[in-house]
Amino acid sequence: MEWLLVLAAIIVGVPAAAWLAQDSLIFFPQPLTSTAHLPPHAAPFVVSAADGTRVTGWIAQGSSTPAPTVIYFGGNAEEVSHILAERRWPPLWSIVAINYRGYGTSQGKPGARELEADALAIYDAVRKREDVDPARIVVFGRSLGTAVATHVAAERPVHGVVLVSPYDSLSAVGRHHYPFLPVSLLLKHRFDAETDARRCQMPMLAIVASADSIIPAARSRALYDAWAGPKSWQVVPDSDHNSLGATPEFWRGVGEFLAQVAEPAK
Questions:
Q1: How far apart are CA 92 and CA 248, in angstroms?
Q2: CB 184: neighbour CB atoms within 10 A?
Q3: Statement: the pTM of the whole predicted model exceeds 0.70
Q4: Peptide bond preceding 182 in cis form (omega within 30 of 0)
Q5: Under 8 Å CB-to-CB from 8, ≥6 apart: which residues?
Q6: Strand runs (DSSP E) across the chain, as ranges?
Q7: What is the chain's pLDDT, residue by residue, as a tens digit (266 residues)?
Q8: How far is CA 57 from CA 42, 91, 237, in A?
Q9: Number of C-beta neighbours around residue 4 at 10 A
């Protein structure tokens, strides 16, 4: 009888522990420790969400006015100021990067619904700026942020999309890593990018690592296959989830895609 009690405790306890711990397993908020690395042309950019939460970041102005603009959505352990310090962005483009709730100096606590709603508010705030060309806005997502970027593309007029290490749904990724858990039943933060992708008609570039240990290739391919618009697939050789963004091949692909979509839509 005792072994039955132990088995029951495991069957109930492990999923319960996963349910309680999932926020800390999905989100890894990072503080803003310095701004010394920011380029001199990066200006603070604060957006008020629908519930009054303030999310904070920067805009690095491009060389033209109004400028084509990239809105960047980062990974689950990324404080986004560092992406603005990257010197390989095409100089024509303005780059907007806003930290998720709880990241950097942004207020609040991260969650799927909150991040997706905030992303729409960020897009709307960017589109209203006089120094931004509203016809040439590209959303750029990395890892967790690919679902956020895809949601914006499904809900707003976006000129192009770059997805780095994309996935079709967080539940599908979770089932890969935790096959012993009923992930679909436990997951609060679903990030269902595949459903949004089926509504996206604009060009998309998917960039994946040749050996990604976090996002399985099948999950990236499922999102890619679901994308309704024109799309291209780039594999960065000899790279993993956390290393592909540092390679020349990665930035060559980004630059070529942005050059292709730089002209306003007709």
A1: 19
A2: 12
A3: yes
A4: no
A5: none
A6: 42-48, 54-60, 67-73, 94-98, 132-142, 160-164, 204-209, 231-236
A7: 444 333 333 333 444 444 445 577 788 999 999 999 999 999 999 999 989 999 999 999 999 899 999 999 999 999 999 999 999 999 999 999 999 999 999 999 999 999 999 999 999 999 999 999 999 999 999 999 999 999 999 999 999 999 999 999 988 887 766 765 656 656 777 799 999 999 999 999 999 999 999 999 999 999 999 999 999 999 999 999 999 999 999 999 999 999 999 876 55
A8: 9, 19, 32
A9: 8
Would you tell me the crossing angle of helices 144-155 and 112-128 to the nearest 10 degrees? Answer: 50
d(CA 89, CA 95): 8
Beta strand pairing call for 42-48 and 54-60: antiparallel
Contact by Cβ (8 Å): 187, 174: yes
Amino acid at 257: F
SS3 132: strand
Given a contact cutoff of 8 angstroms between Cβ atoms, the answer to whether 141 and 164 are in contact is yes
Domain assignments of the chain as residue spans, ordered by start: 2-260
User: Which pair of structure tokens corresponds to residue 25?
Assistant: 């397993």
What is the C-alpha separation between 227 and 245, in angstroms, rounded?
22
Q: What is the CATH number of domain 2-260?
A: 3.40.50.1820
Spatial separation of the C-alpha atoms in residues 172 and 221, rounded to whole Å: 12
- For the chain, report the end-to-end CA distance as a whole number of angstroms: 73
Residue identified by tokens 């800390």 is 24
Whole-angstrom CA distances from 151 to 63, 118, 155, 240, 262 are 28, 11, 6, 25, 22
